[in-house]
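User: what does the whole thing look like in 3D?
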Amino acid sequence: MSIRTRTAWLFLAPMLVTLGVVAAWPLARTIWFSFTDANINDPSLAQWIGFEHYFGEFGLFANATNTDGFWNSDWGIAIVNTLKFACVSVTLETMSGMGVALLLNQEFKGRALVRAAVLVPWAIPTIVSAKMWGWMLHDQFGLVNDWLLQLHLINERIAWTADPHYALWTTVAVDVWKTTPFMALLILAALQTLPKECYEAARVDGVHPLRVFWRITLPLIRTPLMVAVIFRLLDALRVFDLIYVLTANDSSTISMSGFVRREMVENGNMGYGSAAATSLFVIIGLATVLLIRLGRVRMSEETA
Amino acid sequence: MKRFDGWRLALYLAAAAVTAISVFPFLYAISTSLKTGTALFDPSLIPATPSLDNYLQLFRSSENPFGRHILNSIMVSFAVVTLSLLIGVTAAYAFGRIAFKGRGLLLSAVLAVSMFPQVAVLSGMFEMIRFLGLYNRALGLILPYMIFTLPFTVWVLTTFMRQLPKELEEAAIMDGCGPARILRSVFLPLLWPAMVSTGLLAFIAAWNEFMFALTFVIDNDQRTVPVSISLITGASRYDIPWGKIMAASVVVTIPLIVLVLVFQRKIVSGLTAGAVKG
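Assistant: Here's the predicted 3D structure for the full assembly of 582 residues, as structure tokens:
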């Protein structure tokens, strides 16, 4: 080993030790706990029970006592809720982020002010935005119901955060409000690297702006856009705090992370909760690999 | 000419709409925080009789010591940022300046850590925190918070470190400087804009964290701000003190908004100017 390489490992050592202690070891313990009947009160009494939590009688995936089928079990519902939340919110965020980025990429008076204003939702802590919207969407005294009533868009006040028909979509809307700035900033950064000549040539040739967007802008920012979408999607798949604070966190909205925490901490079933956590970890891992593959394949098609 | 005017008009309307949607909810939160009693149920933006009662109550309440919670949050966030930057900058030096076998793989592994779901370490972390006697202590939160601040810090600082010109380091090596000295005297002065921006982002992430704080701290004196806000309750389930909740929200959000608006310029100048000037 050369001196230079030895220096590298020496400088990496503090980070490696820290990540080993705070990430690798706890993750390994969680996976181990998922094969035991550990209880939160005294994990040291844990007994090995194999795949019981996954495929046993009361397991997460092959539950014989669950006559309604997997997708109606609490875990199945949590998976569906999370996927719905993640896919819909990331799609909407990408579209609105793109819109805001295109707007901020234009030249107009007061642009700096608008750009600063757009950052406000991003700067607000998730818990605060959950409480803020919880108040505005309050069924009795909320501003939103008031406005909608005055505009005659609804006939009676709606319990946005409690009614199972609306609760999940309400969390999606609040999440879109909060994370659009993040998307917009990343897309804007990408837009600002684009060569101006293309656009001038297109304008001289009289190409329709929409066509310019589809044929020039979108292909050119594809890679940074994909990166932003992947980051947001992985973030959305582990959602917990927004749903926990804004809604009742019951089966109509509970996410996979919420399910894990409920089983582990509130019900004390550390082993069962760990099995759910491990499953979530595997699902997110697979999603990551899939998304990166998908992004690359498309990109290589583009160049071929 | 006519089409041009219409387009301008649409642009300004869109800009106004985006601004209103972004800012209004927070303005309404400020307005609510100044209302008390039945005034709360009047949805107008400008309070008829503004009062600071909610703010006074917030800091006087002994069962939910909000001032203490703010101190806890500041303490934890500062510790997390300091540790992440210290460990991050040495790692970034190795990643950014030295070509060694397995560098790409290791860097991807670090990025993967920042992406994995935090509940995946919940039970293992719970066991460790109890074992170390850190359960129910605000400072114990430093441990789980490093999971998301450290990989991110390493990643961003590595990107910045790579942009610095090679000649700087070569000149220092010629002068007989060791790696520690090069990092401290050559790179650190050039990296400070990057350190400020990553530090701020890490600070915000730690300040906002909710799940670990909710799970690992039960004691009222040791809570951090997000959990504190989520637990502000009234006499009954139907008597939620919205004015007080909004007051707490405003108190913790205004410093963040100020930081982010200042930081916006920092990251732009940090990215574009970088170390080319050096």
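In plain terms: Chain B has two domains: 2-41, 63-273. DSSP finds eleven helices and no strands in chain B.
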